[in-house]
Amino acid sequence: MQCPKCRGNMRTYERNGVHIEQCDNCRGIFLDYGELETLTRMESQYHAAPPPPPAPGPAWGAPSHGGYHHGHHRHQRSWVGMLFST
User: Fold this and answer.
1) Using CA atoms in the order 68, 69, 74, 76, what is the torsion angle rounded to 10 degrees?
2) What count of Cα atoms within 13 Å lies in the side-chain half-sphere of residue 1?
3) Is the pLDDT higher at 68 or at 59?
4) pTM, two decimal places
5) What is the mean pLDDT of residues 9-32?
6) Among candidate residues 1, 54, 45, 53, the one with its CA nearest the CA of residue 23
7) Distance (Å, rounded) from C-alpha 18 to C-alpha 76?
8) How far apart are CA 49 and CA 53, in angstroms?
9) Could you tell me which residue, 54 or 59, shows the higher pLDDT?
10) Could you tell me which residues belong to the region Disordered (predicted)?
11) DSSP for 8-70?
């Protein structure tokens, strides 16, 4: 299949049951009929999901570090990131 924008080669990916065509040349993304609605519905469900329960705090008598955390914070991934993750 050829890209309708630049005539480059298209590849089809399947992510979460949605077929997505992406151009190898211009990296454009093209969807078939109904796939945009499916992605919109998936996004709504993703953002409506309840947040995970908080991690349990330190046990009584455990040393405290004043609430300061070392390390990296985890950011919530978007539905697009999930769609194209491997």
Assistant:
1) -20
2) 12
3) 59
4) 0.49
5) 89
6) 1
7) 22
8) 12
9) 54
10) 45-73
11) PBEEEEEETTEEEEEETTT--EEE-TTHHHHHHHHHHHHHHSPPPPPPP-PPTT----TT---
